[in-house]
User: Fold this.
Amino acid sequence: MEKVFHLGLRTADLQGAKLAIVPGCPDRAKRIAEQISEAQCLVKTREFHAYLASLNGSPVVVCSTGIGGPSTSIAVEELAQLGVKTFLRVGTTGAIQPHINEGDVLVSTASVRLDGASQHFAPLAYPAAADFYATQAMVEACKATGVDFHVGITASSDTFYPGQERYDTYSGYVSRAFQGSCAEWQQLNVMNYEMESATLFTMCAALGLQAGCVAGVLVNRTRQEIPDVDHAMVERRSVAVVLKAAELLLAK
Ligand SMILES: O=P(O)(O)O[C@H]1O[C@H](CO)[C@@H](O)[C@H]1O
Ligand SMILES: O=c1cc[nH]c(=O)[nH]1
Assistant:
């Protein structure tokens, strides 16, 4: 096939990879790829840094999505065109339930659609649901790696500040639509905020692709807004989970 628009890759470049690990951050993509054998950089363009590696003999892509739904939808669309069927997001997150601790790992079963991009794939009544088997693999991986983890619903917002009802901002103002929203999500047992899973889950479900999401907790917003946890430790735990989940899915 012709090269895809942004990644500039052809099907053959992926060597048959059917599974992609998709962190938001390009540097995290590199660190993940380096933990898998035979890692080679495929492309670095804009927020998309893609690597090909071999996990237990199976080709796997690691590709950063950048922050938010629009860029995530491009990475997922183009990787799907190149043959990828399974997308495992590994991110960072802010918890909003008091019982969740910094460094815990959260597995999302579904996401509140506080994004815009997912509405370009399916109407709002359509659920942003994770794939059952990908989620099951994430949970099994949490158990196998021994991390403290929680499973449940995530709020996935286009914006980091107003959409996640943050007041520690330049203006200190949150528009009316989001005033009180965090308390409502807490009441409705939402675990956390992040920024890509609503788009990822909606588009993958709508397109017949498989998606799961795991995130490491950087901050618990019931206690503080600015993280003081060791970011590397948080990343190590969530990455250990996503790599084990990938192994489990590839072994099926
Ligand atoms: O650490 P990543 O994967 O980027 O995920 C989270 O961190 C970013 C915000 O700081 C957003 O992308 C959010 O979803
Ligand atoms: O609070 C947080 C932390 C990381 N990422 C988010 O989107 N929100």
Summary: The chain has one domain: 11-251. The chain has a mean pLDDT of 98.
